[in-house]
Amino acid sequence: MTFTFRPLDPLQDAELLHRWVTHPKAAYWMMQDAKLEDVERAYMEIAADEHHHALLGLDEKGVPAFLMEYYDPHHRELVGLYKPFPGDVGMHFLTPATEAPVHGFTRAVITAVMAHLFEDPAVQRVVVEPDVANTAVHALNEAVGFVPEREIQKPEKKALLSFCTKEQFLLATVVSV
Prior knowledge:
- 31% of the residues lie in helices and 25% in strands.
- It has 177 residues and is α+β, with helices and mostly antiparallel strands.
- Helix 1 packs across helix 2.
- The chain is globular, with a radius of gyration of 15 Å.
């Protein structure tokens, strides 16, 4: 599977995002009760934030297939919860619910997301902080090289702080391909 990326347009993409983030499968995205306007507002705030970015991952036909966010943990999400290194970048991704799941799709998505982040030579390490209960994403994270460090308490959840260097990512994905 090959993916490309484009910046998310908070107004044009809001209906699509609303369907994705309010679906029961997206419970860990914590927007289950969001109205369309809430989604527009949330992504307009991200679009205006120099330290937080949202992209849509597109499939081979150019159709939106997943959501990716990345952020500077020196300024967003993890401020005061760990000491960021130079070159750290935080990441979230969301694959939408589907009636016809494709085996290996989510793994292909996280692999593409990581490869995209590491295309930037300034990125030395990716940090994630999924909910401790989200065991499915912990397994995906491990599959692409993430190493859990510790549990942290964020305002909205107890999270598993994990890190992945480019070397860890390459080793994990070369061995498993």
